[in-house]
């Protein structure tokens, strides 16, 4: 696996962190979640930009969003902010399959 793919995967993981921190910041009214959002957002964008130097934009963006979306949704299920249903889990597994598929054909 190339460094670009590793950067992309880590950047997707950071997307989940910044999305969760953004929610916890309550409209940027809480300092620490806001600071975490800003730092992880910048790092996530930098990693995505780096990865796009080697990976086509469509694949890179789809993988980045997919990783971030699945991890953000999984965290919401784990922390019980959202209710886990069979359909929700199946759809998240479908997203994971699509991300893996994009990596396989890229």
Overall description:
It comes from Leucobacter rhizosphaerae. This is SMR family transporter. It is found in: Cell membrane. Belongs to the drug/metabolite transporter (DMT) superfamily. Small multidrug resistance (SMR) (TC 2.A.7.1) family. Keywords: Cell membrane, Membrane, Transmembrane, Transmembrane helix, Transport. The chain has 106 residues and is mainly alpha-helical. It has one domain. Helices cover 80% and strands 0% of the residues. The protein has four helices and no strands. Helix 1 runs antiparallel to helix 2, helix 1 crosses helix 3 and helix 3 runs antiparallel to helix 4. The longest helix has 22 residues. It is flat and about 40 Å long. It starts with a helix and ends with a helix. The model has no long low-confidence stretch (mean pLDDT 95).
**Number of helices, where a helix is a run of at least 4 consecutive DSSP H or I residues:** 4
State mean pLDDT (0 to 100 scale): 95
The main pleated sheet reads as:
none
Topology order in helix (H) and strand (E) letters: HHHH
Count all strands and give the number: 0
User: Which structural category do the helix and sheet elements fall into?
Assistant: mainly alpha
Strand content: under 5%
Transmembrane segments: 35-53, 60-78, 84-105
Subcellular location: Cell membrane
Pfam families: Multi_Drug_Res
Keywords: Cell membrane, Membrane, Transmembrane, Transmembrane helix, Transport
């Amino acid at each position: 696996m190339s460094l670009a793919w590793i950067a992309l995967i880590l950047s997707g993981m950071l997307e989940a962190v910044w999305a969760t921190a953004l929610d916890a910041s309550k409209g940027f009214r809480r300092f620490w979640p806001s600071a975490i959002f800003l730092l992880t957002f910048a790092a996530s964008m930098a990693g995505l930009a780096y990865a796009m130097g080697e990976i086509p934009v469509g694949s890179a963006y789809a993988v980045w969003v997919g990783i971030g979306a699945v991890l953000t949704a999984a965290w919401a299920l784990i922390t019980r902010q959202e209710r886990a249903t069979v359909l929700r889990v199946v759809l998240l597994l479908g997203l994971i399959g699509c991300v893996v598929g994009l990596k396989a054909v890229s």
